[in-house]
């Protein structure tokens, strides 16, 4: 999916992860100091390869690489909430989707890209007609990302204890999102 965000002035692209094309990139990103505390996937390459292969085989989620002006810079996981552990923490609906993300290269941090990228991915997930809610569960320590989720339209629900973190469960309702982003036409999408 490709789109141009008029507000941010960048072209964004989300494409699905491919094991051979993205293994070394994602392995490197998961070894960055700003990523390790929140993802804990800084495995040796062979173990990371097995991990990524397993993720790619899971039909309940889709993995994406986010590009800015043609440069790969972020990793995204979208998942069906009913098939995820998060379903144990709220009244999940059949078509709820969830989202995880990270920025890989440090040079993209602090550039104001998180909100337009999250906004684009959220709009993309809402293209599924049955999806009325997008779920996020950022690490409670990740205050910057929690702030970005809130700016996008995600509302805090409650703190939850997941196997790998204490998280803030957040929901973005379809109505809230499109009310906040009335000019969502700025997203010109093409599937790639």
UniProtKB/TrEMBL annotation:
Signal peptide: none annotated. It holds the Pfam family Acetyltransf_8. Pathway: Siderophore biosynthesis. The keyword Transferase applies. Residues 12-175 form the N-acetyltransferase domain. GO terms for molecular function: N-acyltransferase activity. Keywords: Antibiotic resistance, Transferase. The keyword Transferase applies. Acyltransferase required for the direct transfer of medium- to long-chain fatty acyl moieties from a carrier protein (MbtL) on to the epsilon-amino group of lysine residue in the mycobactin core. This is Lysine N-acyltransferase MbtK.
């Amino acid at each position: 999916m490709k789109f141009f965000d008029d507000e941010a002035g960048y072209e964004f692209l989300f494409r699905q992860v491919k094991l051979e094309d993205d293994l070394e990139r994602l392995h490197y990103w998961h070894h960055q100091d700003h990523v390790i505390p929140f993802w804990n996937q800084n495995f040796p390459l062979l173990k990371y390869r097995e991990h990524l292969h397993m993720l790619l085989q899971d039909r309940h989620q889709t993995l994406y690489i986010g590009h800015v002006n043609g440069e790969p810079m972020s990793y995204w996981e979208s998942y069906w909430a009913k098939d995820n552990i998060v379903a144990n923490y709220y009244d999940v609906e059949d078509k709820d989707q969830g989202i995880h993300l990270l920025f890989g290269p440090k040079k993209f941090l602090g550039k104001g890209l998180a909100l337009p990228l999250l906004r684009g991915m959220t709009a993309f997930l809402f293209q599924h007609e049955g999806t009325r809610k997008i779920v996020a569960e950022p690490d409670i320590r990740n205050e910057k990302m929690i702030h970005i989720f809130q700016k996008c339209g995600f509302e805090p629900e409650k703190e939850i204890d997941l196997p790998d973190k204490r998280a803030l469960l957040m929901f973005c309702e379809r109505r809230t999102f499109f009310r906040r982003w009335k000019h969502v036409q700025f997203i010109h999408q093409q599937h790639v």
